[in-house]
Amino acid sequence: MREKIFQIISVQDSDSLASKAYNTVNIFLILISLLPLMFKSQDPLLQFIDNLVLVFFIVEYFLHFITADIKYDDLPKHQAFLRYPVSFFGIVDLLSILPMMEFVSSSFRLLRLFRLVQSARVFRVFKIFRYSNSIDILIKAIIRQKDSLQLVLWTAVLYLLITSLLIFNIEPESFPSFMDALFWSAGALTSATFGDYFPSSPQGQLIGILSFMVGVLIIALPSSIITAGYVDELKAHSNIEDQNGQEQEDEQAQEKSPDR
């Protein structure tokens, strides 16, 4: 029974009609569950839809949990059940049902966490990732290139820190606080300044020019790294599919061949 449930809720490219129907319904519910976030006032119909979707996601979380040992079959059974809640999709699924706390405990309103709990609905959109092979390949490519991406990230962070400290000390009149300098440095690095703060001295303007030039390189590097990793992962995925297809053809040929 649990094997059948796992095949329906977890296999992305299954030929099973039930699995395809489940994936389609799930994506539809994820999208309509975001509707209440588009309105300030809660319409009774929208509230009913949200509660209905919430019940579905709670049941789904339970089903994924009880089939965790099948998904993580390389782990001992007790570790597999602990692995799912801390996995990426386990956390996303948990955040998706977080609005349940809204009506389970009224203390969340008193603690002014109501809006935060309501906003947790946004995380439901990440559930769509589970039903896309392309996104799965992209995630694997990012994981494969994580060392290179971390190097670029820390380079950007270090550069932001240096330029923020420099501009904050060179032009204290233009930048009242370090956070203002950091905000400007981030905007200059990404070429997305809003004009709230800007350097007026030649030294500050020189730092701005350097930030624009360095920003082009830092923004371009992750794109090329991820693209290269995606192409490699796509080739590996295609090779696996070709190998599986060849094995199936060989098995079918053996079944059709007469016994000797």
TrEMBL record:
The keyword RNA-binding does not apply. Gene3D superfamilies: 1.10.287.70, Voltage-gated potassium channels. Chain C. One of its GO terms (biological process) is action potential. Residues 239-260 are annotated as: Disordered. GO terms for molecular function: voltage-gated potassium channel activity. Keywords: Ion channel, Ion transport, Membrane, Potassium, Potassium channel, Potassium transport, Transmembrane, Transmembrane helix, Transport, Voltage-gated channel. It comes from Alloiococcus otitis ATCC 51267. PANTHER family: POTASSIUM VOLTAGE-GATED CHANNEL PROTEIN SHAB, VOLTAGE-GATED POTASSIUM CHANNEL. InterPro entries: Ion_trans_dom, VG_K_chnl, Volt_channel_dom_sf. It comes from the Bacteria. One of its GO terms (cellular component) is voltage-gated potassium channel complex. Its main location: membrane. The chain crosses the membrane at residues 21-39, 45-68, 151-170, 206-231. It is a multi-pass membrane protein. SUPFAM superfamilies: Voltage-gated potassium channels. Residues 20-231 form the Ion transport domain. This is Ion transport domain-containing protein. It is found in: Membrane.
